[in-house]
Amino acid sequence: MTLRNVLLVDDEKRMLDLLSLYLKPHNYTCQQARGAYEALDYLDQKSFDIVLLDIMMPDMDGWELCQEIRAVSDVPIIMVTARDQKEDVVKGLRLGADDYIAKPINEEELLARMEALLRRNMSANRVEVRGLVWDENRYELTYQSKPIKLTPKEFMMLGYFLQHPNQVFSRERLIELIWGFDSNTEGRTVDSHVRNMRDKIKQAGFPIEQHLQTVWGVGYKWTNKS
């Protein structure tokens, strides 16, 4: 059975260890983060299938971290917290969380909620166009079953294009989505990433120039029409 990568975010080591104890026997590999900034570092380095996120943390609370994650990723997020008031649940969901579970945690309920989210996410995170397959769950891009190696930011950028065909992404919007709102990244960096991504996909044999189009003076868009 395939192992799923889960990021656990909580400032309490005891809770992180308890969640790991619950999940490891059920084919989850657990990465523990003792706070929001550590979690963001891990998310920048690797791909996760799901995030379990506590709200009450000292450096940055879970609501703010949820927004930070949503700015760059569609990874499923479950809020795991002692705060189970209705207004807190609504706030978390509006800020981008996918589900909510209250402490003390019922192991079977947690596993059921995680499995349900992963099932829904599985189909949404795979796009195929003329033999080119972008699969976020496997974190791989293939053309006619042959792998194409992209950098993490190239992979993320291609995902936005493929999941939103015919939508024009300005350079400024791509910077916000991929590098973050407070980034000093310039438009030339976006152009460089697009150029490198095009070259890699073209070398694999896919007719990328027919699909990834430059909208002059604005940015880029993906079209499925050849």
UniProtKB/TrEMBL annotation:
Protein name: Response regulator transcription factor
Record-linked InterPro entries: CheY-like_superfamily, OmpR/PhoB-type_DNA-bd, Sig_transdc_resp-reg_receiver, WalR-like, WH-like_DNA-bd_sf
Residues the record lists as 4-aspartylphosphate modifications: D54
Pfam families: Response_reg, Trans_reg_C
Cellular component, GO annotation: cytosol; protein-DNA complex
CDD domains, A to Z: REC_OmpR, trans_reg_C
Molecular function terms from GO: phosphorelay response regulator activity; transcription cis-regulatory region binding
A single BP term in Gene Ontology: regulation of DNA-templated transcription
Phylogenetic placement of the source organism: Bacteria, Bacillati, Bacillota, Bacilli, Bacillales
